[in-house]
Write a structure and sequence with these properties.
Structural class: mainly alpha
Largest sheet: none
Shape: globular
GO molecular function: RNA binding
Order of helices and strands: HHHHHHHHHHHHHHHHHHHHHH
Protein name: Pentacotripeptide-repeat region of PRORP domain-containing protein
Number of helices: 22
Pfam family, one: PPR
Strand content: under 5%
Radius of gyration: 23 Å
Keywords: Repeat
Organism: Fagus sylvatica (Beechnut)
Helix content: over 70%
Distance between the termini: 20 Å
Length: about 375
């Protein structure tokens, strides 16, 4: 009976992901205390995860500190929570305790610690971590390798400035990309200032495109628009980047208006541009516009809709309950549907509680990704 109760409480916690569900999470936490299940490692980890996802880090830390048996998952959750909220010193303090416990980091441990190193400018620890990545064989994991590169890129930039070395047009976009991914707005602005001072760099389209992307990723869409408006020369990447920025910030109407303006200026979209504008429709719930653009891929532009285009369209239809239409779209794909397509369909089914189509999507996901435990958890 106690096992079933613990499983039920765990299920409740795993459904408390949105911030609006924090009250339910606290009620479930109270039930766990009353029923005497607080020593259950699974429930402790679920509590830690739900408080972290809801951004209630003080409660998450209290749960973490009271855990008598912390597993790797719990350490990684705490590290990621601090890093994602830019509490870099707290993340490094937790990592220090992690090491003192004699534990060995895995590929989930590394990314938040790299991010914390960038935030604090701890070059020594960053280099040590990079060495671990190589020795432990984690370079194959894209996220870890990318974060290691970002750390190196930002420190390379700092070293260049301190030593008076001139930057080049190949280096700057890479470092701006690192700033955007890490949300390092101050460093991004510092680089922008260096660009403005240079007559050559200030006219470089690739650098301007990177600035647009960096500002949007740091939450400064207005600055992205300002860079875009001040550019004397635009290429297809410029238009696509700005459309994508509007998409990420939920400004679907602006994204569509810019897409139309791009066409009026004589630019023909490529597959990446069309993916960006479809994603924008999905994020903003523009179903009719999304259908029109999806149909235009083949009819107006003579292209074959890609897997990414199908995934965006399935996500859009699924979000708003058009699950039969979404399933029909997947079945009519000329190429084999990937996990991203079936995952988008399953998410829509979960949202609208459609068990029948959800089972179809889940079975396909189990076959495509048998080792991905999140698929099983989602379906439960």
């Amino acid at each position: 009976m106690s096992h079933k109760t613990a499983f039920y409480l765990s299920s409740l916690l795993r459904n408390c992901v949105p911030l609006s569900a924090i009250s339910q999470a606290k009620q479930t936490h109270a039930q766990i205390l009353v029923l005497g299940f607080l020593s259950n490692v699974t429930l402790q980890t679920d509590l830690l995860l739900v408080y972290s996802k809801c951004g209630v880090l003080q409660a998450a830390r209290q749960v973490f500190d009271k855990m008598s048996d912390r597993n790797m998952h719990s350490w990684n959750i705490m590290l990621a929570s601090y890093a994602q909220n830019f509490l870099c010193l707290d993340a490094l303090n937790v990592f220090d305790k992690f090491l003192k416990m004699g534990l060995r980091p895995d590929h989930y441990t590394m990314p938040p610690v790299f991010k914390a190193c960038v935030g604090t400018g701890d070059a020594y620890l960053g280099k040590m971590l990079h060495g671990w990545v190589v020795r432990l064989g984690f370079e194959e994991y894209v996220v870890v390798g990318r974060l290691a590169f970002m750390f190196d890129a930002l420190n390379y930039f700092r070293r260049m400035l301190s030593e008076g070395v001139n930057m080049d047009s190949m280096t700057i976009p890479s470092i701006l990309n690192a700033c955007g991914r890490e949300g390092d707005l101050m460093k991004g602005k510092e680089i922008h200032g260096q660009v403005v001072k240079s007559f050559i760099f200030n006219r470089d389209v690739a650098i301007s495109n990177s600035l647009i992307d960096m500002y949007a990723k740091c939450g400064c869409l207005h600055d992205s628009e300002k860079v875009f408006r001040n550019m004397r020369e635009l290429n297809l990447v410029t238009w696509t980047t700005m459309i994508s920025c509007y998409s990420v910030h939920g400004k679907g109407e602006d994204s569509l208006a810019l897409f139309k303006k791009m066409g009026d200026c004589g630019f023909k979209p490529n597959c990446i541009t069309l993916t960006a504008v479809l994603a924008s429709c999905s994020h903003s719930g523009l179903i009719d516009q999304g259908r029109r653009i999806f149909n235009s891929i083949s009819f107006d532009y003579g292209l074959e809709p890609s897997v990414e285009h199908h995934a965006c369209m399935v996500d859009l239809l699924g979000r708003f309950g058009h699950l039969e239409e979404a399933l029909g779209l997947v079945k009519n794909m000329k190429s084999v549907a990937t996990a991203s397509v079936w995952g988008a369909l399953l998410a829509g089914c979960m949202m609208h509680k459609n068990v029948e189509i959800g089972e179809v999507a889940a079975l396909q996901l189990f076959e495509l990704e048998p080792r991905n435990s999140s698929n099983y958890i989602s379906f439960v």
